[in-house]
Write a structure and sequence with these properties.
Rossmann fold, disordered C terminus, nucleotide-binding, 6-stranded mixed β-sheet, alpha/beta, 2 domains, transmembrane, ABC transporter transmembrane region fold, ABC_transporter-like_ATP-bd, 19 helices, binds adenosine-5'-diphosphate
């Protein structure tokens, strides 16, 4: 456990933790020796010459003072180290999150990450603050008492050793079962937490379809699983807890019986007997605590395992120095890629020529979004290469790749700030004029005119106060402000009102000017404007060319075009008046 703690925190806290361990050990030994001093003190006190007890009582007082003198600063240092560690862990988690491949961020993991950075870090913070202290006290104080006990009565010391070993064995055996149950329960709790958030977010959809709590099977299942895991954990931990309590009580009875036997036999004085009883009570107490402590240790261990797992998650390998792209054309060369073993792109080769607009079309699930993700290097292909300006994206540092690419996705995430702040994210050091100019070009001014508060209107969490088309316009404004030579664009599929449609078209046209653009096209207008069209199907390019040629070929693209036209030309007729 201590080794794992050291790994999780990195070498930085090694010294502080070792120093703490040393301090806590010294304090525990002092405490143990002070307890043992009770034996001679009581012996003298109840003997013929009680005044001879003074030196022992004074030694005891000095030992207690020394214990307090060591324990107090050590406890304070423990809290200090805990606070340092939590700050450091937050930084390490933050740095890691910033390097993780974007594919890592599934909703489940994002939910877990919140818990990791809050609850889990607090769990670990408690380790140097009090757990380590308790742990050392629980083992070192009784061990000191037993060792010192050998000086007074080897028979009692031996019986204490036997009791100690028995508890340790029970603890190990029971602990293993409890740890497994704990880990499982933890995973299930995390899943339930994610499902509850999902349930809350899905309320509009569930209500629209007239479904309430019973209707959300995933939540029901995870709550049932949580319930079952709680019971399993109880079942796994109960025998261990009962056994530890039983052995601790049995040990106390054993001392009592043995002491009585020895006292009656005359080989143990009454004073020693009383002192020994006090000591055995002191010996049994921490043993009773081990079961409680065991739970806290497992919580900390699980927290450490989770944090270590995150820190050990492989990031996409990057080069020491970036190769400079020559130009901005994009090439996918015999790219194979699949999610979790299922093939999506199967030897895809295509080019996006520099300074032109290339439209990507194909049926839903053909892999269009995947192509964009591969170019932006959310993932690396399983085989083949993605090149920008002739350079494999794996040979470029992440910051160099992102400095030439802007991506506008359908599900645009806005931070809970003002419209202006959200546009500024495109280039934080831009002047106000530059931000306004980009925002106006993307027709964000139409949105600010509508909203009370104008440019300073809050967008709500995730941009909830704006429509999908409006959020995408803010994303285009960000891309305009970032002003990269390459733009990857996933056009909104949702039907837009005429005003939004028109504004979006203008914004896109501004963005496409003089840039290399790859757009997943859903609108007829975009397809007509594109310099080059690539049709995907079955993980490969099935057709490519310009609009007119592709229509003339009357293949898959022509069919796609006709379907789109039919969909757009489709209007709801006025209902006939029934008399
Ligand atoms: P398109 O954009 O053409 O609709 P996508 O690139 O989004 O297609 O998806 C291609 C295939 O990959 C689909 O079958 C989809 O279900 C699957 N897919 C997409 N993203 C993921 C993911 N993160 N994990 C697993 N499968 C995915």
């Amino acid at each position: 456990m201590i080794r794992r703690l050291f790994t999780a925190l990195g070498p930085k806290h090694d010294r502080a933790l070792r120093r703490l361990l040393a301090w806590f050990t010294v304090a525990a030994v002092l405490q143990g020796v002070a307890f043992v001093m009770l034996v001679p003190a009581l012996r003298e006190l109840l003997g013929d010459r009680p005044e001879h007890a003074w030196p022992w009582v004074i030694t005891l007082a000095v030992l207690w003072l020394a214990y307090a003198a060591v324990s107090y600063p050590a406890t304070l240092a423990g809290y200090g180290t805990g606070a340092d560690m939590s700050r450091d862990l937050h930084h390490r988690i933050g740095d890691k999150v910033a390097q993780l491949p974007l594919a890592w961020f599934t909703p489940d993991r994002v939910g877990g990450l919140g818990r990791l950075a809050s609850q889990r870090v607090v769990d670990i913070m408690g380790v140097p603050a009090h757990l380590l202290h308790q742990l050392v006290d629980t083992f070192v104080t009784p061990a000191t008492v037993v060792l010192a006990m050998f000086l007074f009565d080897w028979r009692l010391a031996l019986s204490m050793t036997v009791a100690g070993v028995a508890v340790a064995l029970v603890y190990r055996v029971a602990g293993r079962g409890m740890a497994a149950a704990d880990q499982e329960a933890d995973r299930i709790h995390a899943d339930a937490a994610v499902r509850i958030v999902e349930f809350a977010r899905a309320q509009p959809v569930l209500r629209a379809f007239g479904r309430t709590a019973q209707g959300h099977a995933a939540l029901d299942d995870s709550l049932v699983a949580q319930h079952a895991a709680g019971r399993r954990m109880l079942r796994a931990s109960m025998p261990g807890l009962v056994w530890i309590a039983f052995i601790a009580q049995a040990a106390f009875l054993l001392f009592l019986a043995l002491g009585t036997h020895l006292a009656l036999g005359g080989s143990l004085g009454a004073a020693e007997f009383i002192a020994l009883l006090v000591l055995s009570a002191r010996f049994v107490e921490p043993i009773m605590l081990t079961s409680e402590l065991g739970g806290a240790i497992r919580v900390a261990e699980n927290a450490l395992t989770e944090i270590n797992e995150l820190i050990d998650t492989p990031t996409l390998p990057g080069p020491e120095t970036s190769r400079r792209p020559d130009g901005t054309d994009i090439e996918l060369d015999d790219v194979r890629f699949g999610y979790h073993g299922s093939t999506v792109l199967d030897g895809l080769s295509m080019r996006v020529p520099q300074g032109r607009m290339t439209a990507l079309v194909g049926p839903s699930g053909a892999g269009k979004t995947t192509v964009i993700r591969l170019i932006a290097r959310f993932f690396d292909p399983d085989a083949g290469a993605v090149r920008v300006g002739g350079v494999d994206v794996r040979e470029m540092k992440t910051e160099d790749l992102t400095s030439v690419i802007s991506a506008v996705f359908q599900d645009v995430y806005l931070f809970d700030g003002t419209i202006l702040e959200n546009v500024r994210i495109g280039r934080p050091d831009a002047t106000d004029e530059e931000v306004y100019a980009a925002a106006r070009t993307a027709r964000v001014d139409q949105i600010t005119d509508r909203l009370p508060g104008g440019w300073d209107a809050p967008v709500g969490e995730g941009g909830s106060r704006l429509s999908g088309g409006e959020r995408q316009r803010i994303s285009i404004a960000r891309a305009l402000l970032k002003d990269t030579p390459i733009v990857l664009f996933d056009e909104a599929t949702a039907a837009l009102d005429a005003e939004n449609e028109h504004a979006l078209q203008e914004a896109m046209a501004a963005l496409a000017r003089d840039r290399t653009v790859l757009v997943i096209a859903h609108r007829l207008h975009t397809l007509r404007e594109a310099d080059h069209i690539v049709v995907l199907g079955d993980g490969q390019v099935v057709e490519e060319g310009v609009h007119d040629d592709l229509i003339a070929r009357d293949g898959q693209y022509a069919r796609f075009w006709r379907e789109r036209r039919r969909a757009q030309g489709w209007h709801l007729a006025k209902p006939a008046v029934v008399r």
